[in-house]
Amino acid sequence: MQNTLPIHVQLENLIRDKIANGEYAIGSCLPSERRLAETYGINRLTVRAALKNLRQEGLIVAHQGRGNFVNSARMRLSFSSIRGFGTQLKSQGVVHTSKVLIAQKVPANHKLSRCFQLPVGTPLYHLTRIRIGNSHAIVIDDTYFPFSLIPDVEKIDFSVESLYHNFEKNQIILAEARQTLMVTILTDEDAQLLELPPNSPVFCINHQVSDVSGRLVEYTLSYVNPERANITSYLKNQL
Asked: C or N terminus of the chain, fewer CB within 10 Å?
C-alpha cells in the first residue's frame, strides 16, 4: 500500500471498495486478520484497527469464533457527496426500488417559500416515496422542488425514474447540499410504512440542495429506519 493516508484507513477504503463491487458479497466472511496482514504486507494491529472502524461504522459485523462478515442488516447512506438513494445502494450491491405515495402540484406555504425564496403560493411539486432496499423499507423521502424546473413533471413515473437524473436531463447541475441530521418520532402510519413499531425513533435528514447558480432546487426530509441503515460521513483534512 502506497498512499498519504494512514495504512489502516487505506485498508478500510480497500475493503469498502471490495464490498461495493461485490468481491466481498453481503453476508460473506472477510479474510482473517492474519491473511489480510500477509496479503498487504502490514502488521495485524493495523488490520485490527481497520476492522474495528468498519465494525463501528456497521459495514461489517463480528461473529465470535467465526470472523468478520459483511453486514447484511444495514445499508450505508452517506453525507459525503450529493448522490441519490438508488446510486448509493447500487454501489453496495443492494437491489433497490421506490414506491410513490404522493406526486402532485402544490402551492408553496410560508416555510417553503422562504426556503426557495419564492412568493407564497408559487407552484411546487410534492413527491413522497418509500425507498426500498433488498425488499425492505429503508427511507421515506418527502421532497419538494419548484414545479417549473422539470417540463411535464406530472407525466414522470418516479417509482422507476430518478429525480436527480431528471435534473441532469434538464441541465440542472447540483453543486451544494446542506444536510441536517435529527432524530424524530414518526406518526403511527409512517412507522408502519417503515416496518417499525409505533413511537419508534428514526433518523431525519433535512436536505437542501442548490445548483451552480446558488438556487435552491430541492428540499427533502428523509426519514431513515435506523435498524436498516447507518448514516456515514467521510472527512479528509485539507492540508
From this structure: C
Q: pLDDT tens across 118-150, in order? A: 999 999 999 999 998 878 888 999 999 999 999
Helices (H) and strands (E) in the chain, counts: 7, 10
DSSP β-ladder status, 60-63 and 67-70: antiparallel
Orientation of helix 33-40 relative to helix 7-20, angle to 10°: 110
CA–CA separation, 38 and 34 (whole Å): 6
pLDDT at 83 over 90: no
Boundary (domain end) residue, out of 34, 51, 70: 70
Q: Which position has the grid cell 425514474?
A: 161
DSSP 117: T
CB count in 10 Å sphere of residue 28: 12
Question: Is the per-residue pLDDT at 213 higher than 90?
Answer: yes
Q: Pairing state of beta strands 75-78 and 229-232?
A: parallel
Whole-angstrom distance, CA of residue 58 vs CA of residue 71:
7
Residue 114 covered by a domain: yes
What pLDDT digit, counting tens, does each position of 151-168 carry?
999 999 999 999 999 999
* Same domain, yes or no: 168 and 216: yes
